[in-house]
Task: structure prediction
Amino acid sequence: MEFVKKVNNVSFYNDSKATNVDSTIKAIDSFDKNIILLAGGYDKKIDYSPMFEKENGKIKAMILLGQTKYILEDLCKKYKIEYYLVDDMQMAVDKSFEIMKDSDTVLLSPASASWGMYNNYMQRGDDFKKRVLEKEV
Result:
């Protein structure tokens, strides 16, 4: 997990390497609360429900992208987690800036592979970092 930037007391973290549910659960466990989680990507036909069962009220909202965004949307509805559907990383970062509040954590921890949108998790993480760092507040 890589710290990217702090904006108005909101911290941004790149955990693009979290390409499975267990890794994302560990990332969520690293924070106390108020997580805006950017998740989704290539559909590896896995069960995402453990991520929702173990989030312990830490996720404030989810920004969903990639092939799995509709699977994750259904789980957000079931577990009553606020969510936003986006088409790409630019929209995801823009939405995070739009909804963030003091002391939130914006965490890219997709629980999915990057294929279909990126060649690898590093490229996805670099795209996230670039868009966060260039964002004017």
